[in-house]
Specification:
single chain, alpha/beta, 6-stranded parallel sheet, 11 strands, about 35% helix, elongated, disordered N terminus
Length: about 375
């Protein structure tokens, strides 16, 4: 496959991704979306929990080579790539990359300016560093999982968005880009230890400030932003769907109760003793009409009310459609790259990389002819 057209602010940045699952591939996808030339080093036979490679959009905008790191010449091929890269991303348990011969010391011996990004749940050290885990266990220990859900029910599971991708992938990318800036200024690379427990904890900084100030109760469904407030949450409609409500400021709240037809509750906003009756009244009103009917009522207002859409419905919302927030590439509806850049626009350039399909092109473009050994 030929080199994809240069697009995005990271055009010219070379990234090696040692294949894994979850937050590592997503972080590498984000770098690829931003224009980096990401070469994913797949292992023979693939990785666990993998979907059909043709549909794995976290491998879009990348190229793939297959290297067996357990073969005698496997580590040398990865080190050849690392020697020509700006960034390497791996998501093994601590110490595994070192045992395979592609750890930070091995890579920095070949390329002192390399940014070596490490993605784990528990981090590179600490009592749990060697334990297996997934998103839900990581966020459980940070206190953030326990914040989410109704007070009389178990904590709600936020898919793997909060831990893997927000606390993990996004923090790895921030760290990698900061270290890349330092490396280009000084010529010195470094290791970025991105742990999901660290990033997810960091996301709760404002909440911890509120907790310390006495403005947040350490329990579910008792606070302004966790469903405890009757004008910040979701309500069922007559057709079994939901509306999301969030008019926190007084002027937005006034518009909300007016459009909802509850002007008698205009003074209940800051009166906690009336929140129970306010919640019941709001719930009864929303239950009287369908989601689409209420959407029409609040259309064009500043009442901060929106319909709760499904994954399949979201691409068709007029606002998201107008902004091309989703895109169709190769017949797969998927989120478009974000954020947006005025001078260096991004795009979905290629579909999901198929394992090993780009070996010849990478060998040529990165001047690593040994990648072709065994393929001739």
């Amino acid at each position: 496959m030929a080199t994809t057209p240069a697009q995005g602010p990271l055009t010219g940045v070379r990234v090696v991704e040692l294949a894994g699952i979850g937050p590592g591939p997503f972080a590498a996808m984000l770098l690829a979306d931003l224009g980096a030339d990401v070469v994913r080093v797949d292992r023979p036979g693939g990785v666990g929990l993998a979907i059909d490679p043709a549909y794995d959009v976290t491998n879009r905008n990348k190229r793939s080579v297959v290297v067996d790191l357990k073969a005698a010449d496997g580590p040398a091929r990865v080190l050849d790539l690392a020697a020509r890269a700006d960034v390497l991303v791996e998501g093994y348990r601590p110490g595994v990359a070192e045992r395979l011969g592609v750890g930070p010391e091995d890579c920095h011996a070949r390329n002192p300016a390399l940014v070596y990004g490490r993605m784990t749940g528990w981090g590179q050290d600490g009592p749990l560093a060697q334990r297996a885990g997934h998103d839900i266990a990581y966020i459980a220990l940070t206190g953030t999982l326990g914040m989410i859900g109704e007070p009389d029910r178990p904590p709600a599971v936020p898919a793997n968005l909060l831990g893997d991708y927000a606390g993990g992938s996004l923090y790895l990318v921030v760290g990698v880009l900061a270290a890349l800036h330092h490396a280009r200024a000084t010529g010195t690379g470094q290791v970025v230890d991105a742990a999901i427990v660290d990033g997810t904890t960091h996301l709760s900084a404002m909440i911890h400030g509120m907790l310390a100030a006495g403005g947040w109760q350490d329990r579910r469904g008792a606070n302004l932003l966790d469903g405890g407030c009757p004008y910040y949450g979701t309500y069922a409609t007559a057709d079994g769907r939901y509306m999301a409500v969030g008019p926190l400021e007084p002027q937005f709240y006034d518009e909300f109760v007016g459009l909802l037809g509850l002007p008698e509750h205009a003074d209940a906003r800051k009166d906690w003793t009336r929140w129970g009756e306010l919640r019941e009244a709001v719930a009864a009103r929303f239950a009287s009409r369908t989601r689409d009917e209420w959407t029409a009522v609040f259309e064009g207002s500043d009442a901060c009310v929106a319909p709760v859409l499904s994954l399949a419905e979201a691409p068709h919302h007029p606002h998201l459609a107008a902004r091309s927030t989703f895109t169709d590439h190769g017949g797969i509806i998927q989120p478009a790259p974000a954020p947006r850049f005025s001078a260096t626009p991004t795009a979905v350039r290629t579909g999901p990389a198929r394992p090993g399909a780009d070996t010849a092109g990478v060998a040529r473009d990165w001047d690593v002819p040994d990648l072709l050994k065994g393929l001739e």
